[in-house]
Design goal:
Chain B: It is found in: Cell inner membrane; Cell membrane. Chain B: Belongs to the binding-protein-dependent transport system permease family. Chain B: It is a multi-pass membrane protein. The complex is a heterodimer of chains A (351) and B (544). The termini of chain A are far apart. Chain A folds into two domains: 153 residues, D-Maltodextrin-Binding Protein, domain 2, CATH 3.40.190; 157 residues, Periplasmic binding protein-like II (D-Maltodextrin-Binding Protein, domain 2, 3-Layer(aba) Sandwich). In chain A, strands 1, 2, 3, 4, 5, 6, 7, 8, 9 and 10 form a ten-stranded mixed β-sheet that branches. Chain A is built from twelve helices and ten strands. Helices cover 37% and strands 16% of the residues of chain A. Chain B is an all-alpha fold. Chain B has one domain: Orthogonal Bundle (MetI-like fold). The longest helix of chain B has 34 residues. In chain B, 46% of the residues are buried. Classes of the chains: A alpha/beta (351), B mainly alpha (544).
């Protein structure tokens, strides 16, 4: 009798153990790399899969990660690499001492404007801010052409209005940081209030905006240029055009931002992280980094593969008039910019 | 000498007190400790959220009270009230039609109308966006139909609006009311209605003065379930771009304003407690007794000319809440599968979902047994506290449970932070009450006399537990486990906030893809979750 019971208890215990073991099969033996990414995961997934194929190192990605998660976890570091849409975020992490110097092969291929002095973070692809517009609703001539133009309330009267993202969107934060650099805080705050009041739709992200503009729900929307490229690929709702802002001689030039990556200090798999960085700097992998995003490569000579419809519309980064602030400067504005956005009445997250 | 005596006196006093708390029947220490430990895991994270919100600083509080809290209160309360009212109206009406009238296709309709429970509301929301949205199917049909567009003008539906959100939530929460009210309508005694009839009341008066009052407790219970759901919903609301407290807490957390998230959580906890308080009050003031000796089946009302309008109404609700979402999902799944959406990544997500749901349901079954046993066999103040704490995760949104876990684990148990375990434990906190409820109803069938008989045969308590009690509880516990399985496979906010790198589940993929409007990737996952839910739903329907 006693035996039976002991048996039952042990069977139960074994079952529990099995389940616990079952959940713990991420054993340390496999070579791994933990990557936090705040890029859309469709842009990143193929790149990471190719890395695993090429090197055998398994990648655990956390998509949709916020840079501040690296800050919060600094006593308990889990990430090895942070991939960001916004160099400002990387610059901010760097200023907090959370990134580590990386002297790796191939880093020279990145122009010095696009990497930190210690190479702890660098950019690979760039995008410019601008306005995607629906050609059925508005013509190129009728469109606003500069950031300054958007201060005018008349744009609230265009057919179906225009669209912006919420204040906390990485692209929006970079945009506003650049305006602060150019204009100072007061005028920038006026600008934020103007777009908040005059926009007909405030969206979570740029994907929503390009779809809405393509479908004619709004005349135009403030996005990064590659969302225009993406909308061109849609099977319908693709009669859209794009305005690069501030391209006249006396104007500030388009606001550019870049996507890139940083090496996290004290990450658990430091060696693999360095391997990843060297790997991603290979020309073919810089091309892969652009992936489905249809951004522009910093090294446009590596020839990112764009579909024909998109290729016809590509304006190489070198041909754009770009604002003269160094992109690595963005990090100095990261924290205060979000405060200014909120103070000016544009909610960071509440849509 | 004196001190020794004094000490002895205290020990004796405590012992007597202890025994009197337990009404001379104290439980074994192991059982008590085990239950207490489980209750603590349930409660600590939530207590910690409350604690954190107190230390957010007056600045934060003032900014939130002047800023977002009033708007959030209005958004949340108005939505809760509207959804509750309409869910009650639709739920009661349908229950009454199905149970008490001669509506055609009764048997089929009876379970068809409960099926919206299969569709997770965030999936439902996506399908409604695809169908009713500003560039959705209906809009396309509308603009192509020159008659409609010239007669009425532009497409009038704005799904991203207060009424749009309400509509989505009503369609997927009315079954709570429908099921509970159906059950009590079935049990109602005909005698009361006949008495009313003999007093000269007409049908409408009977409904208003006899049926409705006696349904009040079950309508109340359904309404509470609906409103707790609306307070806690994250996915559907986020999809609809509407902001309630739960969504605001999630967004504050993802932008790492943890203090604001804690403050907002405290307000939400207060709202939840108010609802539970209203419930407990209304329970006290409304007691209706049924006389079981003279029970007779309720009479069935002839609908007459109302027969067809009633049928059309029921079928309409079913079509909108079940047929339409599933059709949309099938349409997009076919496109998705054609485009290779069901690939190795998809299977990895499915495996993760399966793994977390299995672990959580097994552990919930195991953890529920000691707590339930203690509650049913050793009632006391202490038991009541343990029981209440174990239910903490039930009433509170997953977002708050997750927030508490982030705080506690990142600060005090960093080794577990960002692992699979923390997701599993959070889901156990959320869903243990479901397992406990099934376990309780199973154990309540088993008379304590059987325990006593076993004890009198010389079994020690733990032997009674394993040889007598557990085998009898097992069917109920297993059923509870099935329920937990389904709940955890579709759980969204806690998993979103706590998942470790590399751990995406089907629910998370649905949320991510659908919020980027990549429907062909979201749809196959949504269909799979719905299919998995069919079995436990069947089980639940049998219970009602």
């Amino acid at each position: 009798m006693k035996n039976m019971i002991t048996k039952k208890i042990s069977v139960m215990l074994i079952l529990i153990m099995l389940f616990l073991v079952g959940c713990g099969n991420e054993s340390e033996e496999v070579d791994t790399l933990v990557i936090y990414s705040n890029r859309n995961d469709r842009f990143v997934s193929n790149l990471l899969e190719k890395f695993t194929e090429d090197t055998g190192i398994e990648v655990s990605p956390l998509h949709g990660a916020n840079p501040l998660q690296i800050v919060e976890e600094q006593n308990n570091v889990r990430a090895d690499i942070f991939i960001s849409n916004d160099l400002g975020a990387l610059g901010y992490l760097h200023s907090q001492g959370l990134l580590k110097e990386a002297q790796v092969e191939g880093i020279d291929s990145i122009p010095s404007d696009f990497r930190s002095e210690d190479n702890s973070y660098f950019a690979i692809s760039v995008r410019a801010r601008g306005l995607i517009y629906n050609k059925d609703l508005i013509s190129y001539e009728e469109m606003p052409k500069s950031n300054e133009d958007l201060l005018d309330s008349k744009w609230s009267d265009v057919e179906n209005g225009y669209a912006i993202t919420r204040g906390g969107n990485g692209g929006m934060i970079g945009h506003i940081s650049a305006l602060r650099y150019e204009w100072g805080d007061e005028k920038t705050s006026d600008w934020i209030q103007a777009i908040r009041e005059n926009a007909a739709g405030i969206y979570q992200g740029h994907g929503d905006i390009r779809r809405a503009v393509g479908a004619g729900e709004h005349s135009f929307g403030l996005v990064n240029n590659y969302y225009f490229h993406q909308q061109l690929l849609e099977t319908s709702n693709n009669n859209v055009g794009f305005v690069y802002l501030d391209q006249e001689d006396d104007q500030m030039g388009a606001i550019a931002n870049a996507a890139g990556l940083g090496l996290v200090n004290n990450g658990p798999n430091g060696e693999n992280a360095l391997k990843f960085i060297e790997w991603v700097l290979l020309p073919e992998n810089q091309v892969e980094f652009v992936g489905e995003s249809l951004e522009l490569l910093i090294n446009s000579q590596y020839n990112a593969n764009y579909p024909d419809v998109v290729q016809d519309q590509i304006v190489p980064f070198q041909d754009l008039k770009v604002q003269n602030m160094s992109i690595t400067e963005l990090g100095n504005y990261f924290e205060d910019t979000t405060a200014l956005i909120e103070q000016s009445g544009l909610a960071l997250d509440l849509r | 000498m004196f001190i020794k005596k004094f000490n002895k006196g205290i020990v004796y006093f405590l012992k007597m007190k202890w025994i009197s708390i337990w009404k001379s029947n104290p439980p074994g220490m192991v059982l008590l400790l085990l239950s207490s430990a489980i209750a603590l895991v349930m409660a600590i994270p939530i207590l910690y959220v409350v604690y954190r919100s107190f230390f957010a600083g007056t600045d934060k509080w003032r900014r939130l009270i002047d800023g977002s809290i009033p708007g959030l209160l209005w958004n949340t309360i108005s939505l809760t009230v509207i959804v509750m009212i309409f869910s009650v109206i639709i739920g009661v009406l349908l229950a009454w039609l199905i149970v008490r009238t001669d509506i055609p296709f009764k048997r089929t309709l009876k379970w068809l109308l409960a099926l919206p429970l299969l569709v997770p509301p965030y999936v439902g929301a996506v399908t409604y966006i695809i169908f009713f949205g500003r560039s959705g199917w209906l809009q396309a049909a509308w603009t192509n139909n020159s008659f409609l567009s010239t007669l009425i003008g532009d497409y009038p539906v704005d799904i991203y609006s207060f009424w749009g959100v309400s509509f989505v939530l009503i369609m997927f929460t009315y079954p709570y009311v429908y099921l509970i009210v159906s059950a009590s309508l079935k049990k109602m005694n005909r005698n009361y209605e006949e008495a009313a009839q003999s007093l000269g009341m007409n049908r409408f008066q009977i409904f208003r003065k006899v049926i409705l009052p006696s349904l009040r407790p079950s309508i109340g219970a359904g309404a509470i379930l609906v409103s707790l759901y609306v307070l806690s919903d994250f996915g559907a609301i986020a999809m609809m771009r509407y902001v309630t407290f739960t969504a605001a807490i999630y967004f504050q957390r993802t932008s790492f304003d943890t203090e604001s998230a804690a403050v907002l959580s405290l307000v939400l906890i207060a709202l939840t407690l108010i609802i539970l308080w209203i419930e407990s009050r209304s329970k006290k003031s409304n007691k209706y007794y049924q006389n079981s000796n003279s029970y007779r089946r309720p009479m069935v009302l002839k609908l007459g000319k109302w027969k067809w309008p009633a049928t059309v109404f029921a079928i309409f609700i079913f079509t909108v809440s079940v047929v339409l979402p599933i059709m949309v999902l099938i349409y997009w799944s076919i496109i998705g599968i054609g485009m290779g959406a069901v690939n190795s990544r998809f299977f990895a997500y499915a495996f993760n979902s399966l793994r977390v749901a299995t672990v959580v349901s097994v552990l919930c079954m195991l953890a529920s047994m000691p707590v339930v046993y203690l509650k049913m066999r050793y009632p006391s103040v202490i038991t009541r506290v343990i029981d209440r704490l174990s239910y903490a995760g039930y009433a509170l949104p997953g977002v708050i449970v997750a927030l508490g876990f982030v705080f506690v684990f990142n600060n005090f148990i960093p080794a577990l932070y960002g692992t699979f375990y923390i997701v599993a434990i959070a889901l156990i906190v959320r869903f243990l009450p479901q397992a406990m409820q099934s376990g309780e109803s199973a154990l309540s069938m088993l008379s304590p006399k059987i325990d006593e008989a076993a004890r009198s045969l010389g079994y020690p308590p733990w032997k009674v537990m394993f040889k007598v009690v557990l085998p009898n509880m097992l069917p109920g516990v297993l059923a509870g486990g099935a329920l937990v399985f389904v709940s955890s496979i579709k759980e969204l906010p806690a998993t979103l906030l706590l998942r470790p790198p590399g751990f995406d589940t089907l629910a998370i993929r649905i949320y991510v893809e659908a919020s980027e409007a990549i429907y062909h990737l979201a749809a196959p996952a949504a269909l799979l979750i719905i299919m998995v839910s069919i079995i436990p739903l069947k089980f639940m329907l049998d219970k009602y």
